[in-house]
């Protein structure tokens, strides 16, 4: 089902963005992703960098139109999963009301802010068959406060060390069978050795784990995991962003850990200056 891997692309964001049309592509029904099995409720004030991606036109207004998660990494810069921007998710023709919902714990409420997305840049090296390079950058039309921004863990950061405690956040499926949360939830997990995901996802049938571009996280006994609807949301360790919810086989299964987009690899692709909180794109 998922094929071998691809190359990683090191094109600067500004150039790549200029070269691409950045359409808000389209997609399919709510076949999107969800999060957090085995988690607990949290208020968004404890993780203000966790945002919901929304399109009411496509997903309806009930849960504020939420269909994926996102992470604020600069006042007007949000990361999400590339697969959240796929036409299978957003439908075709593309949605025109893509917004980021910030500061809203309960999607049934109207607390917080809804900020229209101005530009979408999908990693051109994203491979939908292997899920390698699963990230996209959204530029917001209004800035969020610096207090909403989380720092990213660069290559070599100890936060990536297997055994490190990590937390994933989202409004996704809490059961694995389509019970989407309307209030934000979090689950405590651990960074797992790459060998766990290499064993779980050795090849096409279940997907292929690629250590350079992905992070393996979960619990050896299962139970706690991201799930459908959580995609694009944050995996945080030691106060820094290490992953974006990307894929996995089912949710919370003991031998099928969650797979996350590796943030240090994404920083390399974006040529993100670790000394600053905005990408070179804005320089
Ligand atoms: C999904 O479909 C998805 N258990 C996200 C994360 C995981 C599985 C599926 C990991 O978006």
TrEMBL record:
<dbReference type="InterPro" id="IPR001254">
    <property type="entry name" value="Trypsin_dom"/>
</dbReference>
<dbReference type="Pfam" id="PF00089">
    <property type="entry name" value="Trypsin"/>
</dbReference>
<keyword id="KW-0720">Serine protease</keyword>
<dbReference type="InterPro" id="IPR018114">
    <property type="entry name" value="TRYPSIN_HIS"/>
</dbReference>
<protein>
    <submittedName>
        <fullName>Serine protease</fullName>
    </submittedName>
</protein>
<dbReference type="GO" id="GO:0004252">
    <property type="term" value="F:serine-type endopeptidase activity"/>
</dbReference>
<keyword id="KW-1015">Disulfide bond</keyword>
<dbReference type="InterPro" id="IPR033116">
    <property type="entry name" value="TRYPSIN_SER"/>
</dbReference>
<feature type="domain" description="Peptidase S1">
    <location>
        <begin position="36"/>
        <end position="272"/>
    </location>
</feature>
<dbReference type="InterPro" id="IPR009003">
    <property type="entry name" value="Peptidase_S1_PA"/>
</dbReference>
<dbReference type="GO" id="GO:0006508">
    <property type="term" value="P:proteolysis"/>
</dbReference>
<feature type="signal peptide">
    <location>
        <begin position="1"/>
        <end position="27"/>
    </location>
</feature>
<keyword id="KW-0732">Signal</keyword>
<dbReference type="InterPro" id="IPR043504">
    <property type="entry name" value="Peptidase_S1_PA_chymotrypsin"/>
</dbReference>
<dbReference type="InterPro" id="IPR001314">
    <property type="entry name" value="Peptidase_S1A"/>
</dbReference>
<comment type="similarity">
    <text>Belongs to the peptidase S1 family.</text>
</comment>
<keyword id="KW-0645">Protease</keyword>
<dbReference type="InterPro" id="IPR050430">
    <property type="entry name" value="Peptidase_S1"/>
</dbReference>
<keyword id="KW-0378">Hydrolase</keyword>
